[in-house]
Structure formats: C-alpha cells, structure tokens
Design brief:
Elements lengths: L4 E6 L2 E7 L2 E6 L17
Antiparallel strand pairs: 1-2, 2-3
Length: 44
C-alpha cells in the first residue's frame, strides 16, 4: 500500500492522505527527534 505525505509534523511524525478529506498521523517508533518549537528542533 502506498500513501502520499500530507504534511510533516516534526522529525518523527507526519500525516498521510488516507482518502479524500481524511488523513492518518504516523509516528516513527525508535526515532528520537527533537520536537518542533523547541531549541533543539529548530533548523540550523
């Protein structure tokens, strides 16, 4: 099954299109990325 990415939430979380008007949030297990909005999460 293939899905298209709707948007990136932060380094380990994103949303994919499921069908018209809906999406699923996916969080990658075992990935410890800084959260967006924190000092460590800002782009360098």
């Amino acid at each position: 099954m293939q899905r298209k990415v709707k948007r990136i939430i932060d380094g380990d979380t994103f949303e994919v299109y499921r069908r018209i008007g809906s999406s699923n949030r996916v969080r990658l297990a075992g990935v410890n990325a800084p959260e967006r909005g924190t000092r460590q999460g800002e782009e360098q």
